[in-house]
Amino acid sequence: MATARLVLLVALVFGTSGGAWAAQEEDVAAPVIHALRLLAGSGGDLGRHGGVPCDSWRLAVEAYNMRDWQTVPASCEGYVGNYMLGGHYRRDSAVVVDEAVAYAEGLKLGGKGKEVWVFDIDETSLSNLPYYATHGFGTKPYNATSFNAYVLEGSAPVLPETQRLFRKLISLGIKPVFLTGRTEDQRAITVANLRRQGYSGWMKLVLKPVGFKASAIVYKSGERKKLQDAGYVIVGNIGDQWSDILGTPEGARTFKLPDPLYYIG
Question: Hey, what's the signal peptide range on this chain (predicted)?
Answer without folding.
Answer: 1-22
